[in-house]
Write a structure and sequence with these properties.
3 helices, Porin, about 200 residues, mainly beta
Length: about 200
């Protein structure tokens, strides 16, 4: 299992490396030129940090902090700075302050929908994935489903801030069966991020 997780991490790093700006026509001009940004495949990234508050009478103490990073592989729209739809792949780090007492590593797809692209744009993110635990020799935890609504605020040519909140479910059925804990953990998330 540890080898599988390391393989996924290195594969993701390879995607990031391939997505970096490259010379155009043998010159130092970067791929971020507006004529190239209109293509369907882009290399924008989403970086988010958040706090997740466990909900319900059984899960109120399952609070966690998280850091997530994803790379957009496709967008639909005029250009990558103002898409109405994008798809990315990501990973990150999630630590439960109380409850598990261990860090989780999620791998996920990030489906992004942007409404009425302007300087301030409402958005919806849906991110299904799968999570591993850093403890117990990278044991499988279970499927993860994250949702988020918020606003994107454009502050520069390339940088756009994300402020949102959402709801997520961390299913832990395989993990729970061997550790005697609940089968899933719901939570309300508060997030701030940067789309660059």
């Amino acid at each position: 299992m540890k080898k599988l997780v390391l393989f996924l991490l290195f594969s993701f790093l390879g995607i990031i490396t391939d997505a970096q700006p490259k010379p155009v026509n043998g010159k130092s001009k970067l791929v971020s030129d507006s004529s190239v940004k209109k293509k369907g495949v882009i290399s924008d990234g989403v970086f988010e940090a958040g706090y997740v508050k466990g909900t319900g009478t059984q899960y109120y103490h399952y609070n966690s902090v998280k850091i997530l990073f994803s790379v957009n592989l496709f967008h639909a729209g005029k250009d990558s700075e103002n898409p109405f739809f994008a798809i990315g792949l990501g990973t990150g780090f999630k630590y439960y302050i109380m409850g598990f007492g261990s860090a989780f590593i999620p791998f996920f797809a990030n489906f992004q929908l942007y409404f009425f692209p302007k300087k301030v744009t409402p958005y919806l993110f849906i991110s299904p994935g799968y999570t591993f635990s850093t403890a117990y020799h990278f044991e499988r935890v279970g499927p993860l489903l994250q949702s988020e609504v918020g606003i994107k605020i454009k502050t520069g040519i390339d940088n756009r801030w994300l402020i949102g909140m959402g709801y997520e479910y961390q299913f832990i059925a395989p993990f729970a069966s061997s550790h005697g804990i609940d089968r899933f953990v719901p939570g309300l998330s508060f997030n701030i991020g940067l789309l660059f």
